[in-house]
Amino acid sequence: MTRTVAKYTRVYVDGYDLSGYTRSVGPLELSYDEADLTTLTDTVKGYLRNHAQANVGTLNAVLDDTATTGSHAVMSVAGQKRTVLVTIGMNAAPAAGDPAFAGQFLQKDYTAADEGGAVIVSIPFSGWASDAASLLHGMPWGVLVSPATARTGANSGTGIDNPSAGATVKGGYMVYQVIAGNGTATVSIDDSANNSAFSALSGATTGSINCAVVRHGVIALSTSATVRRYLRWQVALGTATTVTFALAFSRNY
Amino acid sequence: MSRTVTKWMRFALDDSAGTPREVPVDSVSPVGFVYDETDLTAYQDAVKGYLSAHPDAPIDITGPLSNDAAVSLAASAAAPALSGSYTVLAPLSAPTFTTPLGLAVMWGFDGYWATGDPVFGIVSPSATSGYICTKFQVEGEKYSARFVPFPGTTPAWGTAILT
Question: Do B150 and A164 touch (CB under 8 A)?
Fold first, then answer.
């Protein structure tokens, strides 16, 4: 039986690994407005779900002035869309198949404060960004397809299972965080019905991107796309010989 | 006289394919019907008077996050068989998932729950009857989730297992 503790959570924002600066993140929220549709003849109150609220909550981090990659350098400009991936390892560092919460969220604030003598920064988010790549999915819960790892060639291995088993037919979206690299590459996702015969999941690709600088984004599939049961990461190297990326995928059910 | 403690409590619900599962919980909100009470007292009355309007029956749970594989719901008088909370609950929370769910809170009496012991919820759901999940949230290593009745649904106290 697998359970976990918060120290195995990892946080990626806009292509940067902020795990080494983060003290806590959350609550990782997916909730709905409950529309009361009770009629006179109903025995008990009844509801339907209206709009979802998907939000990262608050990122609480140490104030760190490391150039380019530190918490201050990455997050000090508030009021803008951020590509966020939070992944929760199961009693170990996150691995493929572990829970992931990902999407594009609006960073509301950035404030530094004293907390018991420590200088920390509080970074609350408002929710899903209205200028995100898609407003048609809103399912931030998915799975980690690849932990942040340096990849030097194509993936011919097996994949990860859909937590609820079977294919789904309502699309989903891929979230990528390219943390390091030395040239161009294409990061994508393959799917399979049997965990042996894989092919490219249509649309789930970054296209060729320059990985020598951090890259991040959301690639949304159509809301009627079939996603087969098993998923695996894939990379096609262009001029790059190594690319370090984390990759997640959220299905609609 | 038979009394019990929370370690004999079970929480079961349908997964996204309609298969009954049990997930780990460490708290369950008060279970049952809570009525809107309408105060109908007139000046001339000597005592306040009320009538009951519609009852509400939301269920909030919390528990440890886990991505264990889904396993079959344990039968009557058997030890609980737990599926991963993330495995079962995350798909149910998707905006596109709209199927009413079977859901059962079960109390064993100083032993594993057995047929005849109390159950609250919807144990025989349909396309128009069941619970819907309106929240799935994770903070640290714990999740929280909320369920409310689908319109027209009547949860009930009973003694049968979720099917």
Answer: no
